UniProtKB/TrEMBL annotation:
InterPro entries on file: CodB (IPR030191)
Entry GO MF terms: cytosine transmembrane transporter activity
Protein name: Cytosine permease
Source organism (scientific name): Anaerobaca lacustris
Protein keywords: Membrane, Transmembrane, Transmembrane helix
Annotated TM spans: 29-45, 57-82, 94-122, 128-159, 166-187, 218-243, 255-288, 308-329, 341-361, 367-388, 400-421, 427-448
Keyword check for Transmembrane helix: yes
Taxonomic placement: Bacteria, Pseudomonadati, Planctomycetota, Phycisphaerae, Sedimentisphaerales
Length: 488
């Protein structure tokens, strides 16, 4: 503890100075775009991560694209924008900013530690799908895939823990691989779009034993799109705080999200939708995973070409696996400073391996539901906290912020309900966000927020850094940086 009130992770916190920041097109946009170019995301667009016949294409290409656009805009405006603004205005990372919504003691676990834990879930997902793409090169057996998954997770965890700076340099160019593959597949299949029929597509996706199965309704498609996209993005939305610390001003936060999140989502997942629909229109072959080696081989007219494309997509997926490990390691180093990172990350990696080897990580819909349920209410509560504080960071709140924890618990239950069979809630990640926001507002107004604790060490540092900044940067950032936490 520091000053008898602040834990060391808060008393030692340092804001990223304005002199270290850069325009949106140099950091936020390309980094977020790289997340959405990960083939595990866009390959799920036609199915929505679920097993409904026809997936998101059940009502046609137009409705599928509409659902995608709605989901992309929700990600930007609801899940990213406020965290991004908080990061820009304070220059502080998520685990520090979260101490307002969850308290100086509660913030130790939420959202920082939870972010680290869930990153190992993403590592398991990455290892599973990468090994699935690589397995055909090694005979395609289940044993080969499991061995590849183990090696992939371990190597990514090691690099993420020790050498992320080298991976970051390579990752600058690797996103070009999925872009090129999507363009090639789109060119090959675009001619079949005119012959695509949604009803026929749904019928083709109904298994012989699934008597009476039907495709989703209009609202069902929209809800599935929101569930799939928002669930995938939820952790990255909260991480917008960390992205925001590198933004110069509010315009950079907005533009970084509009291009790196909304546009990247629409382009990558939209291309996957068009590819699946065009391929069916041209060949009549039902497929809802455009990244499948067999599908790509059929489109290209060569099984070898499909395997090569799968290999390239797997290579391009390695940096995201390392980044997940890196974020988890940083979280554990902060929240568990006395535990050797190799031990904490090693335990997390073992969990990732279990998820990948058992195939649990391959249940994309379930994974997205868990992520959305976990971080949906966090983003909702943070947004309300920000607005109640006058569109700025309120500062760390003493102890445990009951408003934050209760709103998260209820929101999580709502978000996870469809997965565990409690209730069939459409667009559960979005509903979890709304529930978290509403309950936080009610409890905050009821007086369940503890008092704010001042962080005096931040103010002179922020002012000193501003003195060194260019005039143009000063004009945009001065007020936000000097506002600091509220003093009560």
């Amino acid at each position: 503890m520091s000053n008898g009130v602040l834990p060391s992770y808060l008393s030692m916190a340092k804001a990223n100075p304005p002199t270290n920041r850069a325009p949106w097109y140099k950091n936020t946009a390309p980094t977020y775009a790289g997340i959405f170019l990960w083939f595990v995301f866009w390959s799920q667009a036609p199915s929505g991560g679920g097993g409904a016949p026809g997936g998101t294409l059940a009502q046609g290409v137009g409705v599928a694209l509409l659902g995608l656009v709605i989901a992309a805009l929700l990600c930007h405006f609801l899940f990213y924008l406020v965290p991004g603004m908080l990061g820009m205005k304070t220059g502080l990372p998520l685990y520090v900013v979260g101490s307002s919504t969850y308290g100086t003691q509660g913030g130790f676990l939420m959202p920082g530690f939870l972010m680290g834990v869930l990153q190992f879930g993403w590592l398991g997902v990455n290892a599973y799908f990468a090994s699935l793409a690589l397995a055909p090169l090694f005979g395609g057996s289940a044993i080969a895939q499991q061995i590849l998954a183990v090696l992939w997770a371990i190597l990514a965890a090691f690099v993420g823990l020790k050498g992320i700076q080298y991976v970051a340099k390579v990752a600058t160019f690797l996103p070009l691989i999925p872009i090129a593959i999507l363009l090639i597949l789109l060119v090959k299949t675009i001619g079949g779009l005119g012959d695509f029929d949604a009803a026929t597509f749904v019928a083709a996706g109904i298994a012989p034993e699934a008597v009476g199965a039907t495709g989703l309704s209009f609202l069902g498609v929209i809800a599935l799109s929101i569930t799939f996209v928002v669930g995938f993005f939820a952790t990255a939305g909260a991480a917008g705080v960390d992205f925001g610390t590198n933004s110069v001003d509010a315009k950079d936060v907005q533009m970084g999200g509009l291009f790196g999140i909304a546009l990247a989502t629409i382009v990558s997942a939209g291309a996957a939708l068009l590819i699946a629909a065009g391929a069916f229109g041209a060949t009549g072959t039902y497929a809802v995973n455009p990244a499948d080696p067999g599908f790509m081989g059929t489109v290209m007219g060569s099984a070898g070409a499909g395997k090569t494309m799968a290999l390239l997509l797997a290579v391009a997926a390695f940096p995201p696996a390392c980044f997940s490990s890196f974020i988890a390691a940083n979280s554990f180093k902060t929240t568990l400073p006395k535990v050797n990172p190799f031990v904490s990350v090693g335990i997390g990696t073992a969990v990732s391996v279990v998820l990948a080897v058992t195939g649990w990580a391959g249940q994309a819909g379930a994974v997205f539901t868990v992520i959305g349920a976990s971080f949906g209410p966090i983003c909702g509560a943070m947004m309300v906290d920000y607005l109640l504080a006058g569109k700025k960071w309120a500062g760390p709140r003493k102890g445990w912020n009951q408003a934050g924890w209760i709103s998260w618990a209820v929101g999580f239950i709502v978000g996870i309900a469809p997965l565990v069979g409690l209730a069939n809630i459409p667009a559960a990640p979005l509903v979890a966000f709304i529930v978290g926001a509403v309950i936080y507002f009610v409890l905050a107004k009821a007086g369940l927020q503890p008092p704010v604790v001042a962080m005096p060490s931040l103010e002179p540092k922020a002012a000193g850094e501003l003195d060194k900044a260019p005039a143009a940067v000063k004009a945009q950032v001065t007020q936000e940086m000097l506002d600091g936490p509220e003093k009560k």
